[in-house]
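Design a sequence for this backbone.
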C-alpha cells in the first residue's frame, strides 16, 4: 500500500474511532453500549501500537508481524463480545440474557479449541503467529453467522430501537464487506486499490456507529414497516 495513502486512511480511521467514543460520552451512552465502546477503544489502542511498531521495526520485521496478528486476534475477540452485547440488548426483554451469554462462551471455547487443534498439526505454526491467525479467522466467521442470525431475530421480534437496529445493520454490512475484500485480495492482491480495501472498510464501522449515536437518541424508534423495508 502506498505510504501517504496508508497514513491518510490511518488518520481518518483514528479520528472516527475517537469520534464514536466522544459521541457516546456526550450522549450519556458510554456505559449503555460499553462493549461497543470497548471494542472501538481496543481498535484505537492497537492501531497506535501497530503504527509505532511499524515505524520502529519496519513492515517485514518479526516484531511487527507478531504485534499485527495478535492484536488482530484480540480485536476479533473484542468485536465478538460487542456482538454478543447487542444480542443481550435484543433478547434482554425476553429474560434469556444468561442463556445468550452461556451459548456465546461455549461458542468461543469451541472456536478456540478448534483453532488450536488445526494449528497444533503444524508445530511451526503453533510456535509463531499461526494460532492467532487461525483464531481470528474462525471467530470472524462465527461472528458473521451470528450477525445474520441476530438480524433475523431483529426482524422477527420487530425490534424498533433505532440505535440497536442500525448498530446491528452496520455490523452486518461491515462483516459482508470485509468478507468480499478478503476474496478480492486472494484473487488480485497485486493491485494497490485492492490492498487498501481492508483499511478503508475498517473506517466504515466507526463512521456508521458515530452517525447513529449522534443522530438518534435512546428513545428514537423505527416504524415496523420501515424495518421490513430495510429487510428487502
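Sequence:
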Amino acid at each position: 500500500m502506498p505510504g501517504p495513502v496508508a497514513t491518510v486512511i490511518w488518520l481518518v480511521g483514528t479520528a472516527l474511532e475517537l469520534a464514536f467514543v466522544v459521541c457516546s460520552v456526550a450522549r450519556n451512552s458510554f456505559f449503555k453500549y460499553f462493549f461497543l465502546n470497548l471494542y472501538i477503544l481496543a481498535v484505537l489502542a492497537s492501531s497506535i501500537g501497530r503504527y509505532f511498531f511499524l515505524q520502529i521495526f519496519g513492515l517485514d520485521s518479526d516484531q511487527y508481524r507478531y504485534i499485527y496478528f495478535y492484536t488482530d486476534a484480540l480485536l476479533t475477540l473484542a468485536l465478538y463480545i460487542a456482538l454478543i452485547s447487542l444480542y443481550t440488548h435484543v433478547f434482554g426483554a425476553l429474560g434469556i440474557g444468561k442463556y445468550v451469554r452461556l451459548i456465546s462462551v461455549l461458542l468461543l471455547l469451541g472456536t478456540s479449541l478448534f483453532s488450536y487443534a488445526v494449528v497444533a498439526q503444524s508445530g511451526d505454526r503453533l510456535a509463531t503467529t499461526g494460532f492467532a491467525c487461525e483464531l481470528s479467522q474462525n471467530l470472524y466467521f462465527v461472528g458473521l453467522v451470528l450477525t445474520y442470525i441476530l438480524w433475523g431475530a431483529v426482524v422477527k421480534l420487530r425490534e424498533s430501537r433505532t440505535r440497536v437496529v442500525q448498530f446491528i445493520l452496520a455490523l452486518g454490512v461491515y462483516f459482508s464487506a470485509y468478507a468480499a475484500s478478503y476474496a478480492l485480495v486472494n484473487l488480485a492482491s497485486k493491485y494497490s486499490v485492492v490492498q487498501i480495501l481492508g483499511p478503508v472498510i475498517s473506517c466504515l464501522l466507526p463512521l456508521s456507529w458515530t452517525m447513529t449515536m449522534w443522530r438518534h437518541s435512546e428513545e428514537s424508534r423505527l416504524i415496523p414497516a420501515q424495518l421490513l423495508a430495510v429487510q428487502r
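The chain has one domain: 3-231.
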